[in-house]
Amino acid sequence: MTDSTYIGNAFIISPLLDDGQPAELYFVVTEGGYLLHMEKMDKDITNEYVASELSKLLIGLEKQDGRYNEFIKNREHYKVRMAIVPPLSIQDARVIDSMYRMNKDKRIEEISKNMERWAR
Known about the structure:
Shape: globular
Mean pLDDT: 80
Helix content: 25-40%
Strand content: 25-35%
Order of helices and strands: EEEHEEHEHH
Oligomer: single chain
Number of helices: 4
Largest sheet: 4 strands, antiparallel
Number of domains: 2
Distance between the termini: 22 Å
């Protein structure tokens, strides 16, 4: 697979809690079941809960066009917060993931430089 290979649409999702409300735990996954990013937004969420949810998305059966993980098997267990519609390439995913490690000003600069590339 090369960097120009498309990985398809991506979704920002959160697992649903027992009361049906979404946790403040965000994952970015592709429609093929690949995990691109994770972010915990609530300090009260335990590390055990994060590890459990992360393992559901990382551990799955490989298949020819992706992974058969919990999001693919049981989509109703997640709230899809946003769909990133333009198909992403592997290189796009790497660039987006690297932006999470930048300070705010650098991230704004990078997004501005790459806007034409992602606004397909």
